Amino acid sequence: MHLKSNSVPSVNSYAVTVVGHDRPGIVAGVTGALATHGGNIEDSSMTLLRGYFAWTLLVSLDADLATVETTLAPLAEPNLKIAVIELAPEVTGTQAATHWLSVHGSDRPGIVSAVTAVVAGAGGNITDLTTRLAGTLYVVLADVFLPPGVDVAVLEQQLAAVSAQLGVEVTLRVADNDDVL
User: Fold this and answer.
1) CATH code: domain of residue 19
2) How far from 162 is each of 62, 114, 126, 145, 169, CA to CA, in Å?
3) Which residues contact 2 (CB under 8 A, 6 or more apart)?
4) Are residues 80 and 103 in the same domain?
């Protein structure tokens, strides 16, 4: 990188998603490519979903969108897709979870949609979500931010109604923020 005197490098923020068949070296390849432009991983979440690799990164680096896409393009394969989105500089900060939501029950379509719609209807925001299917048992775990003023008792009643309709067990409890990242 060449800097003119008295100039400051232009740092841009991007969301990078990498999804596809798992294989060794994906993390090393993506992070190595980003490092060529001074890439700093600020936040990321990676998991394997039934043998498929899924990773989302928020990264800051000194390169424009086209350069980042060009740098990552050689890593993409027919079964591994990489997408890059430039993030607005004014979006910062995170909402710490105020509550934890769990759902357990027989698998069926619409569980996540119905339960999260109730949370959204109360002004809540899902800040982390994990689902797992084990045989016929479906499990949802979510971190939820509820803004001040939300009537949690009313929300719990609404969740209980949806729970009964779906035939699942829904639990909402206050988060112990000492345990949340």
Assistant:
1) 3.30.70.260
2) 47, 7, 17, 19, 10
3) none
4) no
Q: Over the stretch 96-119, which tens digit does the pLDDT of each residue have?
A: 899 999 999 999 999 999 999 999
Confidence (pTM) = 0.78
Domain range spanning residue 120? Answer: 99-174
Number of domains the chain contains: 2
Rounded CA Rg of the chain? 20
- Count CB-CB contacts under 10 A for residue 138: 19
How many CB atoms are located within 10 Å of the residue 34 CB?
A: 22
How close are the terminal C-alpha atoms of the chain, in Å?
34
Question: Do 165 and 111 share a structural domain?
Answer: yes
Give residue-wise pLDDT tens across range 34-64: 999 999 999 999 999 999 999 999 999 999 9
Percent of the chain with pLDDT over 70: 89
Q: Is residue 55 part of a domain?
A: yes
Q: Kindly state the tokens that stand for 44.
A: 């990321």
Angle between helices 65-72 and 26-35 (to 10 degrees): 140
Place of tokens 């929300």: 155
